[in-house]
Structure formats: structure tokens, C-alpha cells
Amino acid sequence: MPDAVFANRRLAEVYDPLDPDRSDLDAYAAMVDEFGARRVLDVGCGTGTFACMLAARGIEVVGVDPAAASLDVGRRKPAGGRVRWILGDATTLPKLSMDIAFMTGNVAQVFLIDDEWLATLAGVRAALAPHGRFVFETRDPGRAGWTEWTPEKTFKRVEVPGVGIVDSWTEVTDMALPFVTFRSETTFASDGEVIASQSTLRFRDRGEVVDSLKASGFRVDEVRDAPDRPGREFVFVTSRAL
User: Fold this and answer.
1) Domain containing residue 154
2) What is the total count of domains within the chain?
3) What does pTM read for this prediction?
């Protein structure tokens, strides 16, 4: 079940205005050109920023996400009509043959138990063409990035056109590594509504991720750094092993 921040319709509508800088996606868009991909699967596509970016360039894109409210936002974006939107996850995909699959943001960390993660890897692999690639990011637990998830460091106040002032913040509520649970609150000044969302992420170390990929039929070609967050994340570039 998706977190409220993605599934709640009112939160989905302000998700992009609260996080407008998506320059983190530029490196992934560049990989589409680097690997000559023409068919892209965006797993956990959310409100579809990346999917629509690629579709506007003439790339065939399939975006899959379990949050219907987020998909509705994506459909209304420029180039949203060129994306094939699927409500679900990597384990419920129809038959596909994609050149490359991406999981950006925190998507790889929402799978808390090994069975969920391995099932997701199997679903992605099945959706790829022979020699297709799978690229995703995950935070390096050694950097303890969750120490910055405090109300003081995460507070945002944004005036959203047609909505008004929106305040948001995040704080960690429980930490039992490799699991970190945090609470987010969003307040709408127009009517005072406060919507809370609780999320848990799993921080897998590099070796654990590599082992799971090999066990799932992927070859790890490279582990890159995230250009916009140097030293904080692993970017796994893998290929579908035959």
C-alpha cells in the first residue's frame, strides 16, 4: 500500500510544487542516450516527472505506480498523454520488452522484507528485453542521511498557485537499522487541514544489494555516484543476465 504522501489526492496535487528541483533526474535521462534506449520502464513513477520528461523526447515510456492519485497528476502533465500509465508495481506488469528500467528517488528502499525486494527484482527482469538494463539508486547507510530528517532542517513553506500557502516537514520517529521510520506533516493554510504520512525505508549496504541482484539474474556493470548528491548514494547500473 503506498504512503499517504503519494496516495492522498490532496498531497499528490502539491507533491511537485513542494519539491520543484528535479535536476537529480538529469543523470538518468542522460543514461537513456548513453545506452541508446528507446523503450523505458519507470518503476514507482509517482507523479510522472521523469516519465513525461522522456516521453516529450519521443521515448516510449511505461510508468507504473501503486498510487492512483499520483498517476492522475502525471496524466495531466505535458506529454502525459504519451506515457502508458499502469496502476500497480513491478510484480503486476503485463508482458513487456523494455530496453531499460529505472527506479529513482526512494523507490528501492520501500521494499522492507527480502521477499518483496526479490519479487520486485524478478518483475523488473521479466519486463526487460534480453541484455536490457536496470538502473536504480539507494542511499548509502554509512552516511546516516536520516540524521538530517528533522523539522528544523526539512521545513518548507511554499505558495502553491490555486492552493495557497502549504507548510511541510519531516522527522524520524523510529530507527532500528536497517529500518528508519519517519513522519511527514503537510498543513494547508487555506483551511488548516493537516495531513500526516508515515513511511519506513530500508537501508541496504552495497554488498547486500549486489548479492540480491546477482541472485535475481542481474549483472552489476557499475556502481556510480549520484551527481547531485556525491558520496551519499549508490547508483547501480546493471544488465539482465541471460
Assistant:
1) 143-201
2) 2
3) 0.95
**154-160: which pairs have CB atoms within 8 A and are 24 or more residues apart?**
156/18, 158/14, 158/17, 158/18, 160/14, 160/17, 160/18
Q: How far apart are CA 172 and CA 163, in angstroms?
A: 28
- How much is the pLDDT for 61? 98
* Among 142, 63, 151, 150, residue whose Cα is nearest residue 107: 63
Query: pLDDT tens-digit profile of 107-119?
Result: 999 999 999 999 9
Cα–Cα distance measured from residue 66 to residue 43, given in angstroms and rounded to the nearest whole number: 10
Are 155 and 135 found together in one domain?
no
Question: In 98-178, which ranges are continuous DSSP H helix?
Answer: 114-127, 151-154
Q: What does the pLDDT look like over 38-71, one tens digit per residue?
A: 999 999 999 999 999 999 999 999 999 999 999 9
* Whether the predicted pLDDT of 26 surpasses 60: yes
Looking at the structure, do residues 14 and 124 belong to the same domain, yes or no?
Answer: yes
Q: What are the DSSP calls for 1-70, one per residue? A: ---HHHHSHHHHHHHHHHS---GGGHHHHHHHHHTT-SEEEEET-TT-HHHHHHHTTT-EEEEEES-HHH
User: What average pLDDT does this structure show over 7-33?
Assistant: 94
13 and 131 part of one domain: yes
Indicate which CATH number applies to the domain containing 45.
3.40.50.150
